[in-house]
Structure formats: C-alpha cells, structure tokens
C-alpha cells in the first residue's frame, strides 16, 4: 500500500479572465458545463481529509470564476484541510475576500506577470495588471498567509530586481519566483519564453541578495528552470507519492500534465472514492516506485532523489513516458534539451514578439 | 541570531495546527511539520504575549532537570529556524 497523499490540487475550473502564454493548463481545456458540481467537490474534500491529505490547493483556470468558491472553502475547512487559493485576484471584491477568510481560507497566492503594466498585460493577453494590484492590496487587511507569485522567462528576467521590489511593496509573507515550466501552453510558446544562461546567472545573484535583505520578513522560494539543470526535478515528489490532482470534470491525475500520456486511463471521482483511486487506479500505479524505470535511471544513484524526473516531459520531448527525463545530463537524448537552450544568448528579447499563442477560454459547452 | 529576551514569539499569519491529538502537525503555506513533544512544549507558549525569557522560565519549570542555559540555547535555535521559514514571528 502506498503512503497517503499529502496534497490535493483541485483544478475547479478552466475558465479564466487571463490568457497567459505560459499557462500550465492542458491544451484541451475542460468546458464549463463539464465541471464537477459543488456537492461532488464537498465529498472529495471530505474524503481527502479522511485519507490524511493536509493541504488543498484550489486552482484553475481562475477559481474565483466559480460562484460557489466560498462554499467550497467552507467545505475544505470542515474537512480539516489547510486551504490555499491560487488566483489572479480577478473576480475578487472586498466582501468576497472577507467571506473566503471567514469561511476558513488559510493562504492566498496571487500571481503577477510583471511589475510594468504594459508588459504584464502583454503576457496575460488582456488589460488586467493595475486592477490586480488594487485587489491584492486588500489581502493585508486579513489574517491569512499571502504569497505573491511571479512567473519568469526570457521576456522579463532582465528586470527581476525591479519586479521583486514591486512585489515587496505588496507586503506578502512569501514571494515565489517560478521559472516557466514547459508544459501545456508554455511548451507551445517555448521559443519565446526560454531564458538565456546569462539571464539565469544574474537572476540567481539577484535572488540570493534579495533573500538576505528580506530575511525574517519575506520568505523567497524559487523554482529553477530544469532545462539548465544537471539533474531533473523530483517531479511531484515522485509519481503518485504525495499529490493527487482533480481536473475540472473530476478526473484524477497524478500531476498537472498527466493527460498528455497516451494510454493512461484516468478514474473519475464521480464514480470512485479518492482512496480507491489513490491505491488502485492504473494511472496512479503506472509509474509509482521504480519498476518502470529504464537505463540509465534503473541503476542510477540519483533515482531515489529525482525519481527519473518528469514522465510528462519525457513523453512531450522524446515520445516515451518511461524514459529518463531528457533534461537529465545522463539522458541519452539530452541533446533535445541542449538544442533548445543553445544559441539563445545573442537573441535580444524583443518586447513585442507576436508569434505566440494565447491560452483561450474553454468553450461553454462540450460539442 | 540569538533571540532577544524581550521578543514575543508567535505563530506567523497563516500557520496553524492540524493533524490529530496524538500527532499534531504544524501547517503553513506549502508545507507541514510533525512536531515532537519538546517542540510542542515550546510552541504552546508562543502566544505573542509571553516574552522569550518568560518562555524559557516556564520551560525550566516543566523540565527542572535541564540547565536553564541549555533550554535557552535549544529553544532559541528552534524558534530561530522556524522564523527563517516564516513559521514563527519574533
């Protein structure tokens, strides 16, 4: 029997007022009329609490697009879950924030695209930045944890310091600097987003200096870009080891991108209990543990730390979900990653690069 | 950094207790810590009212066999680590 999951990621909707070019949602977005109803989510949260899950991450799309969000937060608190709302802040108002907090919201994580409104709006594909800043200022009126999240890439890394100063002014408890990870829409737009090696070197120096300056006031967490790493990330803490993700329509996935792997049959929480899915469903069993590994992972000394990296990335980049994540320097196919990062250095990041694809809104109904 | 005697440690905003009576867990954004008996004894006193020196005195009454200086050192290190993670405010 596997140990119990610790976190539940509830993608409660794919509807979103923003159209960020690095969105991690799948290319196949769930239609509004396929979304799980309130009562199903309530049951899922209760089951999660009973299963030993500690953290609930309410995400999307934009979770505030669901009018029952307050009710979902109350249900999560009743289930004993520590509840985090991952949001753009659009859809918030003062009363709604107060209701979410009194209902038991523990942590709000608001994402920002940039410090400069025109640049931020260009990434988000819609005029939104100034409004988001206004909404974010209300958070400090409440006693909940506040994380300001910033996604970084080639278009904005050159002014990281300015962006960190902007986030600091919002007085968060925590700043999360996340390098774009190349799945979903971000992979589609990778050519426009991949940072250069010298940008990353500068960014690391800026982050270190800022961590020291803000010590004890604001915690800074950063996610490094795995294309530049020597070894892959320990994706999700291992396949089906710690986390379970539920899609808007109720499918249970072991990670954000698992839907790209062909042949995986995903159970739906409408038909199965969370514990049955976690313990027995084929998709969760598929890459759990180490028996699926090929060389060089199978005998690698790092396999207990990085679990062979990311299954979805292996599939997306080299077409084999059971292969060593090609970002690993030991992967026999590592050249596919090197090709993406070599030769970037000379290319100036033109602020108005038009050849990218904005993430659309899902259709209202399934056709 | 040594903690000032006058500091009044408290759980940071957004940190709270979860888990069960037998195994309390300290929950915070993106993480959780299982807290053992001594850690629990320290954190129960971190209510934002008591000063660090009062906390050390109370711990000394609970653990009379331990040296006060040792208690000060260990409780200080423990709280300092949690402060760096923004779990405890000093």
Structure description:
The complex is a heterodimer of chains A (367) and B (90). Chain A has 367 residues and is of the alpha/beta class. Chain A contains 14 helices and nine strands. Chain A has helices at 38-51, 69-78, 94-103, 117-124, 129-136, 160-169, 184-188, 190-193, 197-214, 274-280, 282-286, 303-306, 311-318, 335-341; strands at residues 7-11, 55-59, 82-87, 107-112, 145-152, 174-179, 219-223, 243-246, 252-253. A nine-stranded mixed β-sheet of chain A has the order 7-6-5-4-3-2-1-8-9, covered by helices on one side. In chain A, helix 1 links the parallel strand 1 (7-11) and strand 2. In chain A, helix 1 packs parallel to helix 2. The model of chain A has no long low-confidence stretch (mean pLDDT 94). By secondary structure, chain B is α+β, with helices and mostly antiparallel strands. In chain B, 40% of the residues lie in helices and 19% in strands. Chain B contains three helices and five strands, in the order ββββαααβ. Chain B has a three-stranded antiparallel β-sheet with strand order 2-3-4, with no helix packed on it. A two-stranded antiparallel sheet of chain B has the order 1-5. In chain B, strand 2 and strand 3 form a beta hairpin. The model of chain B has no long low-confidence stretch (mean pLDDT 92). Classes of the chains: A alpha/beta (367), B alpha+beta (90). Chains A and B meet through strand 5 of A and strand 2 and strand 3 of B.
């Amino acid at each position: 029997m596997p140990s119990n999951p610790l976190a539940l990621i509830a993608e409660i909707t794919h509807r979103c007022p923003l159209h960020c070019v690095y969105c991690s949602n799948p290319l196949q977005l769930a239609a509004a009329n396929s979304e799980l109803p309130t009562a199903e989510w309530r049951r899922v949260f209760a089951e999660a609490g009973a299963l030993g899950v500690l953290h609930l991450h309410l995400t999307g799309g934009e979770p505030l697009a669901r009018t029952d969000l307050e009710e979902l937060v109350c249900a999560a608190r009743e289930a004993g879950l520590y509840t985090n709302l991952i949001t753009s802040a659009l859809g918030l108002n003062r009363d709604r924030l107060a209701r979410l907090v009194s209902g038991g919201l523990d942590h709000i994580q608001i994402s920002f695209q940039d410090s400069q409104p025109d640049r931020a709006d260009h990434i988000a594909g819609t005029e939104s930045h100034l409004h988001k800043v206004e909404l974010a200022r209300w958070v400090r009126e409440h006693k909940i944890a506040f994380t300001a999240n910033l996604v970084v890439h080639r278009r904005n890394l050159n002014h990281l310091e300015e962006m960190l100063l902007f986030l600091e002014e919002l007085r968060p408890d925590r700043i999360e600097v996340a390098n774009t990870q190349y799945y979903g829409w971000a992979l589609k737009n990778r050519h426009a987003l991949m940072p250069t090696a010298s940008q990353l070197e500068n960014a690391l120096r800026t982050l270190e200096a800022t961590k020291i300056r803000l010590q004890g006031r604001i915690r800074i967490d950063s996610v490094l870009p795995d294309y530049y790493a020597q070894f892959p990330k320990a994706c999700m803490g291992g396949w089906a080891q710690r986390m379970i993700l539920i899609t808007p329509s109720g499918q249970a996935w072991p990670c954000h991108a698992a839907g790209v792997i062909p042949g995986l049959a995903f159970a739906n929480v409408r038909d199965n209990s969370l514990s049955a899915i976690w313990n027995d469903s084929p998709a969760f069993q598929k890459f759990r543990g180490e028996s699926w590994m090929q060389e060089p992972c199978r005998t690698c000394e790092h396999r207990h730390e990085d679990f062979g990296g990311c299954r979805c990335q292996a599939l997306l980049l080299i077409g084999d979900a059971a292969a060593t994540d090609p970002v690993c320097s030991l992967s026999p196919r590592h050249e596919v990653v090197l090709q993406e990062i070599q030769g970037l250095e000379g290319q100036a990041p033109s602020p108005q690069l038009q050849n990218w694809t904005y993430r659309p809104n899902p259709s209202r109904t399934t056709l | 950094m040594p903690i000032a005697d006058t500091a009044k440690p408290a759980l940071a905003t957004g940190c709270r207790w979860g888990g069960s009576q037998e195994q309390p867990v300290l929950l915070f954004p993106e993480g959780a810590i299982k807290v053992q008996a001594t850690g629990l004894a320290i954190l129960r006193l971190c209510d934002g009212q008591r000063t660090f020196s009062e906390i050390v005195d109370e711990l000394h009454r609970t653990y009379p066999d331990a040296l006060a200086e040792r208690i000060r050192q260990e409780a200080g290190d423990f709280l300092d680590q949690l402060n760096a993670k923004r779990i405890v405010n000093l």
